[in-house]
Amino acid sequence: MLQITDQDLTSFNTLGLQAHARALLRLQTPDQLPELTRLAARHASVFVLGGGSNVVLVPNIDSLVVKLESRGVGIYEQTDSHVIVEAHAGEVWHDFVAGCVERGWNGLENLALIPGTVGAAPVQNIGAYGVELDQRFHSLVAWDLRKGRAVEMGAADCGFSYRNSFFKQAKPGRWLIVKVRFCLPRQWQPVLSYPDLQRHPVLAQAGASTTAQQVFDAVCEIRRHKLPDPAVLGNAGSFFKNPVVGADVLDAIRQAHPNVVVYPQPDGLYKLAAGWLIDQAGWKGRRMGPAGVHDRQALVLVNHGGATAQDIESLAQAIREDVERRFGVRLEQEPVRVG
Ligand code: EPU
Predict the structure, then answer these.
(1) Active site (catalytic) residues
(2) What is the DSSP letter of 109?
(3) Pairing mode, if any, of strands 234-238 and 300-303?
(4) Same domain, 174 and 98
(5) Tens place of pLDDT for every residue, the chain, 339 residues?
(6) Which residue has its alpha carbon closest to ligand 1 atom 34?
(7) Domain holding 96: CATH number?
(8) Are residues 157 and 270 in the same domain?
(9) Of 60, 77, 98, 266, which has the fewest beta carbons less than 10 angstroms from its beta carbon?
(10) Does 276 lie in the same domain as 145?
């Protein structure tokens, strides 16, 4: 029998925002999904919480909060060229990646140390250091809470793009990701295109003989240096997406800032580094009440202690307005607001 409890969610979100749920349901196995469907029908709205690493929670959450905590990792299928690995939604993403590298299932090592769960990873199509989840994605099983049935979905169904997917756009609480499968190549090649990896001494020295473990270790080291550990300083990773602009906007910025950081996109547009824009605007390390901008990566907003959603959002709004005024670029929030 599933038990609904009321629950303080402060330790269930990596920003550490003070939040309280009137109704929380924790599922240990997918067998409980039909029962969940019956219970959810009695609530006006449902919110699916993963590792809480990409959310801004308001103080009082009226939705039924659902956490699928089922665990398990195994081989789904093997071919001559690939291993397809299946993981349950409740697995901790970083531990899953570490386990894959240990077993020689390579291809996810650039995504080491991203906070959150396996089930949440496809929602925002997590990406870092030259690899995005969709490049390694095979398929997933999602539970449709409205129709009360499991659905198999391939990459096309998931509609992945930069920090976005079908699930991020869908009505909140309709879909619950149950299992995710990854297609990992036997003939593995390291992805070392990202500047931070190219500069890393161990990888530069290893050259063509670089191992997945070395990439994994390097990514962990770089992230630990730049990004705050949520267990020490509350944060939700990048708070804004890197904005994509046309040549006209880029040219205008370049006039005043010839050194603007820019990544040309295949479609002729230009991705700018939001962290660079925020840093140039002088926000790095600044505080507004208990909310602040991280002092080593301006794209990360942090909770110095006791912050609420309102504190974080006031800071985000001030940054957004300042960046727009200076550069003519509107920053889009990355974490999902709940409540
Ligand atoms: N930069 C600054 N000042 C800053 C921050 C960055 O000048 O305060 C400059 C850097 O020097 C660099 C450029 O901006 O030239 C990009 O910075 P970085 O390589 O740190 O990456 P990012 O664009 O800020 C993105 C992802 C991260 C991911 C890294 C590495 C987004 C929104 N963020 O950050 O993802 O780890 O690349 O691939 O795409 C996340 O999504 O939560 C996240 C941490």
Answers:
(1) 163, 238, 334
(2) G
(3) antiparallel
(4) yes
(5) 899 999 999 999 999 999 999 999 999 999 999 999 999 999 999 999 999 999 999 999 999 999 999 999 999 999 999 999 999 999 999 999 999 999 999 999 999 999 999 999 999 999 999 999 999 999 999 999 999 999 999 999 999 999 999 999 999 899 999 999 999 999 999 999 999 999 999 999 998 899 999 999 999 999 999 999 999 999 999 999 999 999 999 999 999 999 999 999 999 999 999 999 999 999 999 999 999 999 999 999 999 999 999 999 999 999 999 999 999 999 999 999 998
(6) 238
(7) 3.30.465.10
(8) no
(9) 266
(10) no
80 & 35 share domain: no
CA distance 186 to 195: 26
> H helices of 199-333, where?
201-206, 212-226, 247-256, 274-280, 309-327
Number of the ligand 1 atom closest to the C-alpha atom of 128: 38
> For residue 312, how far is its CA from the centre of ligand 1 (angstroms)?
19
- 61 in the same domain as 12: yes
Does 220 share its domain with 316? Answer: no
Same domain, 195 and 119: yes
Spacing, Cα 298 to ligand 1 middle (Å): 9
- Picking from 172, 196, 226, the residue at the C-terminal end of a domain is 226
Rounded-to-integer distance, Cα 193 and Cα 132, Å: 13
**Which amino acid residue places its CA nearest to atom 27 of ligand 1?**
128
**Segments forming the whole domain that contains residue 9:** 4-68
CA 58 to chain centre: 19
CB half-sphere exposure, 80, CA atoms < 13 A: 0
What's the CATH number where 8 sits? 3.30.43.10
- Point out the domain boundary residue: 37, 68, 99: 68
Number of domains within the chain: 3
pTM summary value: 0.96
Q: Which of 299, 327, 333 to mutate to test the pocket of ligand 1 (most atoms within 8 A of CB)?
A: 299
CATH number at residue 279: 3.90.78.10
Cα 215 to Cα 62: distance, rounded to the nearest angstrom: 43
